[in-house]
Amino acid sequence: ERRQAQKTQARLAAIVESSDDAIVSKDLNGRIMTWNAGAERLFGYRETEVVGKPITLIIPPDHLDEEGTILDRIRRGERLEHYETVRVRKDGSRVDISLTVSPVKAPDGTIVGASKIARDISDHRKMEQQLLAADRQKDNFIAILAHELRNPLSPIRNAVKILEMERPEDRDLLSYCKLIDEEVLQINRLLDDLLDISRINQGKLSFRKERIDIVKLVGN
User: Fold this and answer.
1) Residue 209's pLDDT band (cuts 50, 70, 90)
2) Could you give the C-alpha distances from 48 to 37, 84, 195, in angstroms and in order?
3) For residue 112, what pLDDT band results from cuts at 50, 70 and 90?
4) How far is CA 164 from the centre of its chain?
5) Distances from the Cα of 146 to the Cαs of 56, 190, 206, in angstroms?
6) Taking a C-beta distance cutoff of 8 angstroms, is the pair 48, 41 a contact?
7) How far apart are CA 157 and CA 135, in angstroms?
8) Sheet with 22-27, side-by-side order of all strands
9) Is the model's pTM score more than 0.70?
10) How far apart are CA 31 and CA 18, in angstroms?
């Protein structure tokens, strides 16, 4: 049983050491206890540089309040999953990470520390920013397109009205004018819908709930 436990422990240690993710453990005072190769690659510190030092070494000043909150939750036995935040590397650069923190318990069940798994999500964040920028460009394009398409519609409707006034006796012409006018109005409605969608996406258009008096509505 002892040999089996040793093998299991060695296997787990190998998995932790070979992981691409940063895997770190700390005590309840926030001092680093272990630091794997993934953490070295992600944050730039060697294990000998950080073990025994506070985990705040990699937390930027504007995120220091997170550590107290995390430790409080760990003391209560809670697990923190996929928490997206920012950490700082040895060279001072910032890195976006997804953080999972779990309590570490002694054999008697007492919580003695926390294990943290940090994954670099910088590429994911960069892609999100690119998608948001592309979405903004699309909305701007829609707004410009709708404006440019709407400009010729008014002259077309005006020309139709002039034809109707000049040749009121020409029934064929009047039916054609009516058809043109209806189609122009339909295009206008489509452009309005297109612009509304663009405004909704940009947060420039919102819906408001209104209470309808059913009694009055039925009475009318």
Assistant:
1) low
2) 12, 27, 59
3) very high
4) 55
5) 52, 9, 20
6) no
7) 33
8) 32-35, 22-27, 111-120, 94-105, 80-88
9) no
10) 23
